[in-house]
Specification:
Jelly Rolls; elongated; 11 strands; transcription regulation; transcription; alpha+beta; 285 residues; sequence-specific DNA binding; 2 domains; HTH_AraC-typ_CS
């Protein structure tokens, strides 16, 4: 059974966060979720009080039991469910708020936060208080909803520890491995999925981590390395512009010239002439 309540949303603009819906799942072994992307600005917490279940992150499948839970941040694919043999009893809550991430810090920002706690009764009690409040159906309870949600988030952080994920150093090493592959193979038709596979991350998680650690997107980094290679050919060979475009992975010479001019403010030919590089023969036709 999945007993849940949707809340009338507050119109007060300065609340840190506010519940959207809350529910209590039990005796429902088929309870599972496969969401490609969750609605923007919506967070999701599930907390298991009995039974078993699982959650799949970008790097691993994690078994869950009583005292475990997880939090998904905004715009994240979601994959979790109850165990068929020993279905979980769990509380869940969807919520939103522009101030939520300030309370969470980096928790749930790039990947689901999977945690464990000994304070099962303490955390469940807050869920129950929120759920019971919905039965009153009063708009005057707005402040109480906001306060209880804040209490829930803080209590979970104070009395829980993370059980998933990798260290920042490990993440950096994996991203650097993919970056090195991009550098060496930039002239080839590299897809984001290939680079992500080398790191061992899912494409979506890889994209977020790559931008966070490298300060640019996968596409920007690939273009940057292709441009460096093109400049090398312009300065050290007599290859034609068309040939250089082909050798550096650009779709066409026109596209290469367009992107080069946009980046360098001059055309590839002007770049070659400006530096007055002398070649042993004429350029290819």
């Amino acid at each position: 059974m999945n007993d849940y309540k949707y809340l009338i949303q507050s119109e007060f603009p300065r609340l840190i966060g506010y519940p959207i819906a809350i529910g209590h799942v039990y005796d429902e072994p088929e309870h599972s979720i496969r969401r490609i992307i969750h609605p923007s600005f919506t967070y999701n917490i599930h907390f298991i009080v009995k039974g078993k279940g699982y959650i799949k992150t970008s790097t691993e499948m994690i078994p869950l039991k009583a005292g475990n839970g997880f939090l998904y941040g905004c715009d994240q694919a979601q994959y979790f469910g109850s165990d068929l043999e020993e279905p979980w009893e769990a509380w869940w809550i969807f919520f939103k708020g522009k101030g939520i991430q300030n309370v969470l810090g980096n928790i749930g920002k790039n990947e689901a936060w999977v945690f464990t706690t000994d304070a099962i009764s303490r955390i469940e009690a807050i869920f129950i208080r929120i759920f019971e409040l919905t039965k009153q159906d009063k708009s005057t309870n707005e402040a109480q909803y906001a306060v209880l949600l804040y209490e829930l988030i803080v209590e979970m952080q104070l009395h829980s520890k993370q059980i998933n994920g990798i260290t920042p150093i490990q993440a950096s090493e994996k991203i650097n491995k993919s970056a090195e592959y991009i550098q060496k193979n930039c002239s080839k038709n590299i897809m984001l999925e290939q680079a992500a596979e080398i790191s061992g991350f899912s494409p979506s998680y890889f994209s977020r981590m790559f931008r966070q650690l490298k300060g640019k997107t996968f596409v920007e980094y690939l273009f940057e390395n292709r441009l460096k290679l093109a400049k090398k050919y312009l300065l050290t060979t007599n290859l034609s512009i068309k040939r250089i475009a082909f050798e550096t992975g650009f779709a066409s010479s026109n596209y290469f010239i367009e992107k080069f001019r946009k980046q360098e403010q001059i055309t590839p030919s002007q770049f070659r002439e400006t530096l007055k590089v002398k070649f042993g023969g004429r350029s290819e036709n």
